[in-house]
Amino acid sequence: MTRFFKRRATGWKPVVVDGFRFVSRGEADRYEALKAQHPQLVADASDTHALLVCTAPGLTETFRLAGKVAGNKHHAKRTTVDGHTFASGHEARRYVYLKALEAAGEIVDLQPHPSWEFVIDGHRVGKFTPDFQYTIAVGPGRGEVIVEDTKAPSTKTEAYQLRKKLLWACHRIAITEVFASR
Asked: Fewest beta carbons within 10 Å, which of 52, 53, 128, 172?
């Protein structure tokens, strides 16, 4: 006889470890213990089955998953360079390029993730954190401060457009957009 159970009012919540959604805390604890014992452990999640297969020399373990954790809606991967965490690989590559320009003396004062607040009539209405700010050191634009945001077409949302306009209205700062090339 099959029984159907109602979900509790609080709902069932899977346990997320290393981006994998485990069906129970016990499965997650077992995975973490195995990972601690075997630093060379390789975990591979199946796209068609809710299984995680972990392999190490002389060992194969299988864990039940509740499914995959949804990724970034823009398919961006967080990347860390020089202790700075960037929202995408494109942004990280742009940082490496700007660091090279700074080392060559073409730009100075490179700042990742500067931030400006929007205050209207004494009320804070938000803030905007573009990707980079730097000063041009040579050439005709010498001394010009550039505020830059790396963009993909999908990230140029209405909310972004509004923050860009607010930055101009409140601080008279224009954003230079750098688009990813495919």
From this structure: 172
